Amino acid sequence: MYRIACVQMEPKLGEVEGNRRESARLIREAASHGAKLIVLPEAAAAGYMFRDRDEAMSMAEEVPSGPACTEWLVLCRELDVWLVAGMTEKEDGKVFNSAVFLSPSGYVGKFRKVHLWNDEKQIYGPGEGFPVFETELGRIAIAICYDAWFPETFRSASLGGADVLVMPCNWVPVPHQPEGIVMANMMCQTGAHSNHMFVAAASRVGEERGQPFVGCSLVVGPDGWPLAGPAARNEPDIVYADIDPVGTRDERWGNPFNQPVNDRRTDVYRS
After folding, report:
1. Which residues, 6+ apart, have CB-to-CB distance to 39 below 8 Å?
2. Which of 6, 113, 169, 208 is catalytic?
């Protein structure tokens, strides 16, 4: 059993030093409330609404040697916490919408967003899969924002043995969305329920270059019901939930009657 925290913050476009300071403050706050695994939003290090690839490249950094990763790693060691944080990554002349996974003992790995949304296709290279990281906290998979629009994201993580799917996000308003309902929350709940795993999504708030963002960060249990959140739509916040991914494996995967993963009929599905 441990506490997971989804940090809902407002990164500022291009203010990389300020974003690092604010993320450090919020990581410390989450740790002070007992969080062991902390999730920051998508593009938390440099902001999100880049005009083009050149602007994104100018604010990107290498993983894990860049300044954001370096500072976050120091915090993880000091506070004895694990961190998943969205950032803009550069490698071999390409830019990626990535998330880094850091632990008290060092760099664990990274994930690159697989499904690129809207103008992201003109800026970033796509990721190539959904790795699952074996850790003392359980088997952790990562996705980013628009990846949640695809059931295959959750299913790929589940088939890889994931106990928890963590998602740095920058959710935006969806056309015709009724007041009080957030489409992304519904997708997280469905994905968790259909795959018997925990889902933790940290979104951002505020506005960049005319694009508003919707917060509503949450943690969902394997039965599809929220354990924490959704947070407010427009205010910074941190949502906490106590989860036991390893201790609940038998309960989650051992139901003799209904197993959405094992009961699949791959012989009749279209690919």
Report:
1. 4, 5, 6, 7, 83, 84, 85, 166, 167, 168, 200, 201, 202
2. 113
